[in-house]
Automatic annotation (TrEMBL):
Protein name as catalogued: 5'-nucleotidase SurE
Class of the enzyme per the UniProt entry, highest EC level: hydrolase
NCBIfam families per the UniProt record, alphabetical: PRK00346.1-4, surE
Catalytic activity: a ribonucleoside 5'-phosphate + H2O = a ribonucleoside + phosphate
Classification via Gene3D superfamilies: Survival protein SurE-like phosphatase/nucleotidase
Organism annotation: Deinococcus irradiatisoli
Domain of life: Bacteria
Binding site for a divalent metal cation: D16, D17, S47, N103
InterPro entries: SurE, SurE-like_Pase/nucleotidase, SurE-like_sf
Residues in coiled coil: none
Amino acid sequence: MTSSPTARKRVLIANDDGIFSPGIKALALAVAAVAEVYVVAPDVEQSGVGHGITFRRPLRFKHTAAAGFGDIPAYRVDGTPADCVVLGVNLLGRPDMVVSGINLGANMGDDLTHSGTVAAAIEGVSLGLPAIALSQISAGGEYDFAPGAEYAAKLVAQVLEHGLPPRTFLNVNIPPQIKGACVTRLSDHRYEDTLITRHDPEGREYHWVSGKPRAEYASDTDFGAVEDGYVSVTPIRLDLTARDLIGAVSAYLPGV
C-alpha cells in the first residue's frame, strides 16, 4: 500500500503596498514553488499605518482575479495589513506561516514601529505563527524583485522546516544588487520628520508630514549590510521589556 504524499505547507502572503503591487506578485509567485500560497492584501496602499486594527466599521473581503497571481487565490481587503492577516487566517484557514512584502522601500531600525509590512508579520506572530517581513531598496527608483523573491522563497522553505521561537519573526531587507546574505541587528535608521505647511485655494491651512532617512553606518546592522550589498536578516522579538531598567524603576517607584 503506497502512502499519500505529504501535504504542502500553507503560506499566507500580505503586504501594505496593496494587492496590485509588483512586489507582492513577485513574492507570491516565487514562494508558490515551495508552499501552497494564498494572498490577502489591502485594496489600496496602506504604507505607514503600523499595527492598526479596524474595529469601528465593517471590512470587505473580495476575491480578485485581476492582480496577476495566476492560479494563486488572491483577496483584497478595505483595511490595514493587520486586518488582512486576521481575515485571511479566519476566513481561509490557518496557515503554517505568514509572509509580508515585498515592500517598496526599506524597513530598518526605527521604521519597524510604523511599518505596515512589519505589522502584518507581527499580527501573524500574535496569532502564534512564524512570520517574515520583506522589504527591498530600489536602484534609482527602479525595482527588480526577481532576485529578492527567489531568495525569499529559499528563506521561507528554511523557516517552514526549522521554525522560529514563539513571539519572534525575521525582518528582511534586500539591496538592489545581492552579493550575499547575513544575520544582522537593528540599526538606528529613522526618518527625521519635517512638517510642510501650505494653504488650499480657500486659504485654509493644511499640513504634509515629510522626512528624510538617517542612519549611522555599522557593518553588523541592517542598514550596514544593505549598504554593503547584502540581504539583511534580522531576528526580532516582540518582548519590548527593558529588563535592565526594572531595578532602577523599582527603586524610585512611588507608592499609591
